[in-house]
Design goal:
alpha/beta, 47% helix, 5-stranded parallel β-sheet, two-stranded antiparallel ribbon, 190 residues, single chain, 15% strand
Length: 190
């Protein structure tokens, strides 16, 4: 986007996909370029629960985590447009998927499991990858979740795609959908 042009977002944008797809990185970059709020649903869950996501999984299980996640996402999407990065499993839960689909433009950031794994530093903070073979787990998750992720409004392949290029694709897709529009100036320059 050109620096001296102001764009307005008419709807929230929810980034979905597996861990390591670039949701937080691209989301922060995009939100900063628009000067609007960026929210990471996992960060919001930790704030509200007062404990880490691995601890929520260990103490209460995945079902309780998904319930908390759904409520947090619904709360975030009640306000003015934001860029939202969701947890990798959020979009597979029917109620959460319905909320995201009705209250935002959903963008699947798609990447191959090998790419996803290469982007991750600390696997201990990712409960689903903490045990066993992380690549096999990511491959299985990718195969299981693909049918849900394919329901996103927009799909962007992020394999071998630098963040700046992914941002251009995102901006183009949102302009095509009339979600991202150039702000009309009240006064024209002379």
């Amino acid at each position: 986007m050109k620096q001296n042009q102001n764009y307005l977002l008419s709807h929230s944008v929810a980034l979905i996909g597996l861990m390591g797809a670039g949701k937080s990185t691209l989301g922060r970059y995009f939100a900063r370029s628009l000067s609007i709020d960026f929210k990471d649903s996992d960060d919001e869950i930790v704030k509200r629960a007062g404990i880490s996501i691995p601890d929520i999984f260990e103490l209460s299980g995945e079902e309780k985590f998904r319930d908390i996640e759904q409520r947090v996402i619904e709360d975030i999407l009640q306000g003015s447009p934001v860029i939202l990065s969701t947890g990798g499993g959020a979009f597979i839960v029917p109620k959460t998927r319905n909320i995201l689909s009705n209250k935002s433009v959903t963008i699947w950031l798609r990447a191959e499991p090998e790419t996803l794994l290469s982007r991750m530093d600390n696997l201990h903070n990712r409960p689903l990858l903490a045990k066993g073979d992380p690549l096999l787990t990511l491959t299985n998750l990718s195969n299981e979740r693909k049918r849900y992720y394919e329901q996103a409004d927009v799909i962007i392949d992020t394999d071998n795609l630098p963040a700046a290029h992914a941002l251009r694709e995102l901006v183009s897709a949102l302009k095509d959908r009339n979600v991202l529009k150039l702000e009309k100036s009240v006064q024209k320059e002379l």
